[in-house]
Amino acid sequence: MKPELSDQLREFGYQGRVVSIQRLRELKQEIETRLSDGSLDKTFSDENLSGFDFGLPEKMPDARSLIVVAVKQPQVRFTFTWNDARIQFMVPPTYVRAPGTDIQIENTLNELLDPAGYRVTQARLPKKLLAVRSGLAEYGKNNITYVSGLGSFHRLAAFYSDLPCDEDVWQETKMMARCETCSACLNNCPTGAIPSDRFLLRAERCIVFHNEHPNEIPFPSWMDPSWHNCIVGCMLCQIPCPEDRVCLDWIEDSAEFSAEETQLLIEGRPIGEFPPEMTEKLNESDLVYLLELFPRNLKVLLEKPESS
Ligand code: B12
Ligand code: SF4
Ligand code: SF4
Question: Is the pLDDT of residue 59 over 60?
């Protein structure tokens, strides 16, 4: 990355890399190979990977580079009232204010590049692969990326830019050295999603794949209810990771819900039926887009024996 842009991004708490637009082809090829060699579950790839777009954007047909940015993200803690007790659950890093964060990064990049006459626009690309190949991140055995100083507690955002990039770093996919002698994530994953016979996640076994599904799709029968640990997502392969020790206390406390409000959430009532102060709380804490998942996801957490 041009050193001055990299330094300017750091002032905003971001880390970034720029690579040539020619790398689009390699990203596309790699994902297409995975899609065609049978290593990815078909339902998973249809649902989760079909949104990638490896073409040049209409908004910027003259794009000359790709920019990938990592930004620090906390876990966000919510409090519910259940059986007369207060009980807390997390939303993992990256979910809360996700689109807002990407827009903020985009605006910052545009402000930084504008004096030189360049700009950026968001890209729908495989961001971990781009981050690792550009040298911004390394893969953990859990298939999550790790960035220096941020562990895995970061959000990745990718952009097209008309900023020229004649030289770049483009390395082979790399796993952290520490993973050679550690399997804490694999051992703590209850579903077998982190395989011991290959690197690539068995995404169709991952709790996150299932608890991000629309509410009307029940959890599969093989999934033990006691495995659920977050309102959405799962933290079981990040919490035991020695590389994440520095990030575990990055926790932001958010909204608290009374017994009546908790009940309304698990009943899946439409937002129009909520008292105005509850709607305000949901808006402020950016939970509205997750509301649809509460009847299934919050209910299973509240019904765990330790929650009763
Ligand atoms: C699909 C998806 C999911 C799926 C599948 C996850 C997966 N591993 O593919 C599900 C729903 C399960 C999911 C879960 C989560 N996700 Co998600 N997800 C995505 C999404 C949309 C695409 C990821 C992707 O490209 N998958 C395709 C596979 C093929 O790519 P890959 O995982 O990079 O795999 C490469 C490696 O396996 C490598 N490889 C293969 N063999 C080998 C061997 C060696 C030795 C090495 C080193 C590499 C290697 O090659 C593959 C590429 O060809 C991205 C957003 C985006 N646009 O990129 C977010 C994203 C990856 N998710 C994110 C997050 C935070 C999560 C969760 C951590 C959330 C949570 N706490 O609950 C979990 C993590 C689960 C896990 N252990 O991976 C963040 C990642 C941030 C980070 N620090 O890594 C992203 C980037 C969103 C964002 N904007 O920040 N996610
Ligand atoms: S997010 Fe949870 S289910 Fe998915 S791989 Fe990690 S520990 Fe396993
Ligand atoms: S828990 Fe260990 S093996 Fe897993 S990602 Fe972290 S360091 Fe690597």
Answer: yes
Starting at the edge strand that comes first in sequence, how are the strands of the sheet with 85-91 ordered? Answer: 85-91, 75-82, 251-256
- Confidence label for 307 from pLDDT (cuts 50, 70 and 90): confident
Q: What is the pLDDT of residues 247-285, one digit of tens each?
A: 999 999 999 999 999 999 999 999 999 999 999 999 999
- Contact (CB, 8 A) for 159 and 120: yes
| Residue linked to tokens 């703590």 | 188
**308 pLDDT higher than 80:** no
Name the 3-class secondary structure at 164.
coil
**Alpha-helical segments (H) within 16-67:** 23-36, 42-48
Instruction: Output the six-digit token pair for 103.
Output: 């827009």
pTM over 0.85: yes
**In the block, residue with structure tokens 């068995």:** 202
252: Cα separation from own chain's centroid: 17
Instruction: Round the CA-based radius of gyration of the chain to a whole number and report it.
Output: 20
Q: Which of 137, 142, 143 is nearest to 184 (CA)?
A: 142
Cα distance from N-terminal residue to C-terminal residue, the chain: 52
Q: Determine the residue type at 188.
A: N
CA of 230 to the centre of ligand 3 (A): 20
- Residue 202 CA to ligand 3 center (angstroms) comes to 17
Ligand 2 pocket residue status of 191, Cβ below 6 Å: yes
Determine the 3-state secondary structure of 145 from DSSP: strand
Whether ligand 2 lies within 6 angstroms of the CB of 131 is answered as no
Q: Tell whether the torsion through CA atoms of 237, 190, 183 and 48 is positive or negative.
A: negative
Alpha-carbon distance of 261 to 275, in angstroms, equals 9
With 0-12 / 13-18 / 19 or more C-beta atoms within 10 angstroms meaning exposed / middle / buried, residue 118 is: middle
Name the residue ranges covered by the structural domains of the chain. Answer: 3-307
**Distance from the CA of 305 to the center of ligand 1, in angstroms?**
31
What distance in Å separates the CA atoms of residue 298 and residue 91, rounded to the nearest whole number? 11
